[in-house]
Amino acid sequence: VPLEPFVHQVGGHTSMLRYDEHTVCKPLVLQELSFYESLPWAMRQFTPQYKGVVSVHLKKDSLGNLTLVASPGTEHGLVKRSHTQGTKTFRDSWEHPSAGNSCAALQGLQSHPVPGESSPGKAPQCFQHTMTFGTDLQYHTDSLLEDANGNQPERKSYNPWGLHCHRQHLNRMSSKHNENKLHQFLLLENVVSKYSYPCILDLKMGTRQHGDDASEEKKARHIKKCEQSTSASLGVRICGMQVYQADTGHFLCKDKYFGRKLSPEGFRQTLRQFLCTGNQLRTDLLEPIVLRLKALLSVIRKQSSYRFYSSSLLIIYDGQEPKESAAPLDHHLPLPKTHGANPARVDVRMIDFAHTTFKGSKSSPTPYDGPDHGYIFGLENLIKILQSLSE
């Protein structure tokens, strides 16, 4: 199965790849595998479904383009997907990383069809030439996605973050390993596959981000990031976001550098922006989101010994407005509120458990007692802020 970059990745630094319409995969970390294999029943509705492990290797074509290919094992009951359509997609446009010409690779995306453009969970259009990159694609500064005024404008494109992670990952793999080396990847449910235009908020939860295994240098770095962001004051910070703007047909994207700079008030304004789809504020979603967060809070309070260091929380809804409140795109009057919102229209999921520790975990030498108070603090503040928006 040729793997493609997952176009709705809004945060994180590990490359998420699309395995099939309902499945994504990511490099296997033993601690994360251990978490999924011993997941408490109560938490399952708040995490992606774990679908097993797959072997992945690098493949280079005659032009030097790199692809990642998965070889599914029958023991996990995963059938190789058919490739009757959309075969000439993202993977055809990656250049050999050593060429370093990211502009050409990005512009190459324009000439290929978007994989499954009309199917659910897809962005509406391909990359446009609105993005210009230097010769090496790096996210170490915030200027990449900012205009001259320091704003991160709307993009007529996919969220660029997943592309950045994917290229870095290919670079690392090709420089360290030969083509035939097999790498283990985790297969997980694609939690946005049922949405036509997935609006996603990626929140880094808790007041502490470093794992127990972090070096002193890494620990100091993470502590500083927390102190300088809303992680310390609110127990939560924005790690990435994409919101479909129905009036323009584009996604508005924000990255982790934007999130790190926010004050508590800026955080609140960005939450409001997350619910603004261009021609209306989706107040109908506030109640179902808060209800789901409260349900998660009650589950987390009961999980003794768990510490979810560096994990994220996704809040998801569909940017395609419900039929009963749809209006022409040139209609700028406020739209009527929809009542009795169906809670299934929103989703809340915990992701990224590479640094999660719990009693009995093979890789966590430090057992903790009681629930994760830093995570609980973040959830409580998030609920309070969303409730204040609805008021």
From TrEMBL:
Alphabetical GO biological process terms: inositol phosphate biosynthetic process; phosphatidylinositol phosphate biosynthetic process
Listed GO MF terms: inositol hexakisphosphate kinase activity
InterPro entries hit by this protein: IPK, IPK_sf
Transferase as UniProt keyword: yes
Class of this enzyme: transferase
GO cellular component, one term: cytoplasm
Any Pfam family hit: IPK
Keywords assigned by UniProt, alphabetized: Kinase, Transferase
Keyword Transferase part of the UniProt annotation: yes
EC number of the protein: 2.7.-.-
Protein family: Belongs to the inositol phosphokinase (IPK) family.
Name of the protein in question: Kinase
Organism: Manacus vitellinus
Highest classification ranks of the organism: Eukaryota, Metazoa, Chordata, Craniata, Vertebrata
